[in-house]
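COMPLEX REQUEST
Ligand: protoporphyrin IX containing FE
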Amino acid sequence: RDGNRKLLPPGPPGVPILGNLPQLVGVSQLWHTFDKWKYEYGSLTFLNMAGKDVMVLNTKAAAMELLERRSAIYSDRPRSIVAEYIGSRMAIPFARYGKPWQNMRRAAHAVLNARVSSQYHPVQIEEAIILAHGLLYDKSSTLLEKINGSASTVISVVYGKRSLSFEKKGQVVDPDEELHLPESDPLQSLSNIGHRFTSSLYPGAYLVEVLPILDYVPATLARWKRNAQRDFGRISETFQKFYDDAVRNDQQRTSLCASLSDTQLASGLTNAEKAWVTGSISVAALETTSTTLSFFLYAMIQHPNVQEQAQKELDRVVGRSRSPNFTDIAHLPYIRAIVKEVLRWQPAIPLVVPRMAMEASMVHAFYFAQDDWYEGNFIPKGTALILNLWSMNRDRDIYGPDVDQFRPERFLQKSEEKGEYILQAEYENEDGHCSFGFGRRGCVGKYVADNALFIDMAIILWALRIEPKAFEIKTSTKRGPTHDLVK
Ligand code: HEM
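STATUS: Structure written out below.
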């Protein structure tokens, strides 16, 4: 096996003991560093992180081979002791591969797959109209607050229409408290829970991850453990309350919580696990959606020609007497291309929570590590794989030399009869980007996300023009909706 290590993929030389760690610690926007290395080292970059084997996966071809075709080996996430105390075993995005994760993932798939995601169309349309109206007329919130509020489109899908009550008011934050869960602002609570998990996964955040023996220190003497156990209780309580309220309030059974409360869809899950499934789905959905919408607004400011082209399409297909809806989707290729291009150009998660090189043995219900090979390169068992979605989306061999440009036209062609834009046939069913990840751990909410982004963007572009005004974004009524958007 040691001999095989001579065949590890190439990577930047590191220093003794710490390896490549000093080159990476404290670097913001690490994906730019990885992107540079991709051009030097190719589809896999090997890194030694203080003795830990880490590989950065830089190309779609490598991701398809390892994460799709060999998904039995690469569907685990690395273990984090602190995250486990906070509850990662019950949170789909962070859970290790195994029976509990499989049960949760099956239940999530049952309520988020391509077919059922259309049942959330009415609530998504309503939320998109509220968002556009807020962008135009809400003078009391900052643009950032409005964009963050845009995540309520997906939250309403999970918890039902406006089921979580919003009464934003000044909150007193306890400085000793790592996890702030303001009752009056559920979106903020969900976002803080997400941050609590991801910050516990940062390499070097907790000494116990490097010295696991410290886990034997009792909670009374270990503050990190006390806090993590306390936070598990508080997150469970919050998720449970959101779930119970949603199931109780959703008489029409349109929300994901209501669907999941049907035992058939979520067989094998306890009530508490259902609350964690829905809670962790919202955490995964929240910032990914609002980040993508922020980049959409930014792109529209930077490229008024794209905005104009999209509005011409909306005027032609939808007109001014009604707002866009999902029946228009097949006739709005330019808007669909904008959704794809925003996701390609600025993936909400440029580097994905690592995968582990492991092999599942269902017979024994635990997992054996396994060495692997890719194109003559050795992948030692236990290697953590980082998915570099940023570089995959900016692959010049796939997208051409203008990868850094925002250009929805790359997914389109002109029709022969009318000279109008149509989606290139291959992108009818293909994303055209890698921003939802790959294989068994790929984004389970991608259909709901795509629908939310389509309708949000279509209704915003139909209702208003987005222009920069000094340093703030001005949303103007110049497009003049012909009827009151919100009754
Ligand atoms: C713009 C929107 C979104 C983007 C870009 C995005 C992207 C991603 C990515 C990259 C992953 C990790 C995939 C991997 O490891 O290969 C992921 C996982 C996940 N996403 Fe999304 N996502 C979005 C929206 C959503 C929505 C709306 C939902 C739910 C309604 C959702 C639910 C999840 C869940 C539960 C996971 C964890 C899957 C697992 O580990 O089994 N996401 N997402």
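REMARKS: The longest strand covers residues 44-49. The chain is about 45% helix and 10% strand.
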